[in-house]
Amino acid sequence: MFEQAAAGEARNPLSDWILRGAIALVFVYEGIAKFGEASDWIKLFREIGFGEWFRNFAGVVEIAGGVLVLIPKTVTAGLALLACTMASAALILAFVIGRPWDSVFSGAFFIGLMFFWWSRRS
Questions:
Q1: What is the Cα–Cα distance from 110 to 9, expressed in whole angstroms?
Q2: Are 55 and 45 a contacting pair, CB within 8 Å?
């Protein structure tokens, strides 16, 4: 009786793959966009003040996180990497650039990634 109450609901594999695929698609797409020479990302990363290497680093981290989310054994690592990236983006937008309202989007992504991670815990 108590075992059933503690077990919780089983995860639906199809919805899990769909959510992981959507997360991967968004972050791989945005990571690739950071390498474009005619993107708005160049202006934003100049405002941050760390140079071009930081824009390239952010692109690589987002692509790597998106790929890790697709691999079943590395989902947790990918979600952690992407959540840290989104938390950092929110903090940089709010405190370094001084645009706290722009940090809402990356903060919402952070919360969504954390909620997805929490729902996957066993």
A1: 24
A2: yes
Longest CA span, the chain: 61
Written as one string, the DSSP assignment of 63-95 is HHHHHHHHSGGGHHHHHHHHHHHHHHHHHIIII
CA distance linking residue 55 with residue 117, whole number of Å: 26
User: Cα–Cα distance between 72 and 58 in angstroms, integer?
Assistant: 23
Tokens representing 57 are 């680093």
Residue-wise pLDDT for 23-73, tens only, equals: 999 999 999 999 988 778 888 999 999 888 999 999 999 999 999 999 999
Task: Judge whether 77 and 120 are in contact, CB under 8 Å.
Answer: no
Q: Do the beta carbons of residue 20 and residue 33 sit within 8 Å?
A: no
